[in-house]
Amino acid sequence: MSATLHYFNGRGKAEIVRLSMAAAKVEFSQVDITEKHQFEALKTEGKLVFGQLPLVEYEGNNLVQSCSTARYFAAKGDLLGSNEQEKLNIDILFEGTRDFNSAFIPYGFAGFKEVLDNAKQTVIPKYLPVFNSILSKNGSNGHLVGSKLSLADLGLLEVSLTIEELLGEDELKPYPEVQNFLKVMKSNEAIANYLRSDLRKKKNDERYVAEVQRVLN
Amino acid sequence: MSATLHYFNGRGKAEIVRLSMAAAKVEFSQVDITEKHQFEALKTEGKLVFGQLPLVEYEGNNLVQSCSTARYFAAKGDLLGSNEQEKLNIDILFEGTRDFNSAFIPYGFAGFKEVLDNAKQTVIPKYLPVFNSILSKNGSNGHLVGSKLSLADLGLLEVSLTIEELLGEDELKPYPEVQNFLKVMKSNEAIANYLRSDLRKKKNDERYVAEVQRVLN
Asked: What is the mean pLDDT of residues A26-33?
């Protein structure tokens, strides 16, 4: 059965959900929330437990909270690890990617250059060396844990793609393991298909920021 | 085997980990990190993947990222749900309690009154009616999902206890289901034992805030 994702017409907090559905090979369509009345309607229908997007309608469930939704689809796609130790490591590293990624979520909403300058001073020097080292210790196979794709990989993929696009690929040069990881990820068929599809939204721009603010305020 | 929690001498991000260990009946001791050299030693020993606390040493693992650690112990205590639907609902509601709770984490660090005033205007009117309603729909049995204790309950317990202590029990009066929930939680033997033990830290005060800042800076 296919899923329906309701979110603004951008990446934001829905991107990890999209990546997890794509990697788990769950087909989905998108409803872009571009007008306030659409958002209000979802709330009135009781589909948003905490009044927030993203929402995924799937098999009668109203899935909210992006990390829970990502874990739900990751479980379906067997992306949470094969044993207790892998499960633990994947959960910890995924949470780390969320902290890392959170610095980029306000891109455009708290300035464009400001957000990137802040990221360059804080999260990039903090997290990239750690993930580079973990990738190396895991055997330079392009995965953070074990020898196959996991939710932790999807988390790092999201933020690596963001860095590559917003700051340029040179930003990743000091981290060859992360560069190799990104190459491996991009060669994954399900991920490659998603990234070149219309489902992949564009980076935040002024128009998008204004649209989100109009829906929310 | 018993666990060792390393954290500052307060509740902070470790509290949900303590609650999950207590509820899962995993014995633990605590090392209070009150001096910079203790924190630096843990980093040098490679025990903090992302250079952050809390850390739990348990069965040879260095558990970090508080939500992952809480889930790990919740799994051991069978607190993550009995079937796929329960697991999903518990994960979503737990994430909601984390968003709710995050407004109280800066208590003392971003002012005392300021943090509470902000919570009264934002998260309390947003989340308490939702959890009150979920508790009612679940049969007013003092649990958010199903008929037994879950990680979602522990998440709501943490924030309800905080509200009761910092804002007074009257703050919960408009939410009788939450009041009943809190009563049920406090009558849980494992939780009651923890709350009256020395393991339960005190609320943030100026001394604690200064101590944490000294360790971190």
From this structure: 98
